[in-house]
Amino acid sequence: MTAARSARSPAAVSRPGLRERKKTKTREAIRAATYALVRQQGYEATTVERIAERAEVSPSTVLRYFPTKEDIVLTDEYDPVMAAELAARPADEPWSASLRHVLRKALDLGAGEEAELTRLRTRLLAEVPAVRSRMLENMSATGRVLARAIAGRTGLDPDGLEVRIVSMSLVGGLMEVSRYWAEHDHEESLAKLVDRALDAPGERAARPARRPPGRAPKRLPPGPGPRGILTG
Asked: Residue 5: which residues within 8 A CB-CB, separation 6 or more?
C-alpha cells in the first residue's frame, strides 16, 4: 500500500512472458511520468493528458492501466504478498505478532524505492483529499484479500466479524501510519511508527481514562449492583 514498484513473492520463480513485461514497463512509465510532473507543477495541475504525453502513451492507455489519477499514486502489487505472509504465520502465533510481521514486510517491500518518492506518496495521501478518499475506497478490497488469508489460516468465516476487524485493522493501520509520518515531516522511522501503532491499543487499554481538567466525576444514584450480559 505504501510502495509503487511491483513486488513478487520470493516463492515466485517463473519469469513473466513478453506481454506481461511490456505491461509492467508501461505501468512504470506512467508512474514515473506522474511523479515527475507532480514534483514540477503539483498534483492538481498534473492531468491525465500531461501524464500520457510525458509517458509517450495515449490518455486512454493511462486510464486502461489506472482508472483514476489517484490510482497511479495508490496502486501497488503488494496485497497478495502481504496475504501470503499472513497465511504463512504459525497458527498459534498471537495476532499482534502476526500483524507486526506483515506490516514490517510491507515496509521492507517499499524499501527498494527512492526515499524521496516514498515521502512524496505519503505526503499526497496526507494532503490531497481525492487521494485519501480513493484510498478509503480501495481499503475494502485489500481487506477482503487479507480476510481470505486469515480465514485460510484459522478456519474461520472470511465474512465473520472478528476476521473482518483484524483484516481492516491491518489495512487501516498502514494508512494511518503513512499519514502520521507525512504530517510530522517524516521525522520518525516508519518501522518505529509501526511498532507504536501496534502497541497503542494495549497501552490504551492498560491506562485509565483521563478526566478533562475541572470536570468532576459523574456520580451514580444509589441502587442495586450493576447488571449486564453476564450478571443477568
From this structure: 28, 76, 112, 113
Q: What is the mean pLDDT of residues 81-101?
A: 78
> DSSP of 187-210, one letter per residue?
-S-HHHHHHHHHHHHHHHHHSPPP
Measured between alpha carbons, how far is residue 123 from residues 134, 178, 221 in Å? 15, 8, 51
Q: Are 131 and 70 in contact (CB under 8 A)?
A: yes
Q: 2: number of CA atoms within 13 Å, CB side?
A: 35
| Residue 109, pLDDT score | 65
pLDDT at residue number 51: 97
CA distance 232 to 229: 6
Read off the amino acid at residue 214.
G
| pLDDT tens sequence across 183-223 | 998 888 888 888 888 776 654 434 444 545 555 544 434 44
Q: How far apart are CA 119 and CA 108, in angstroms?
A: 15
* Count of other CB atoms within 10 angstroms of residue 137: 12
- Per-residue exposure over 106-131, b if at least 16 CB sit within 10 Å of its own CB, e if not: bbebbeeeeeebbebbbbbbbebeeb
- pLDDT-derived band of residue 149, with 50, 70 and 90 as boundaries? confident
Phi/psi of residue 219, nearest 5 degrees:
-100, 130
SS3 94: coil
Q: Phi first, then psi: give them for residue 158, nearest 5 degrees.
A: -65, -20
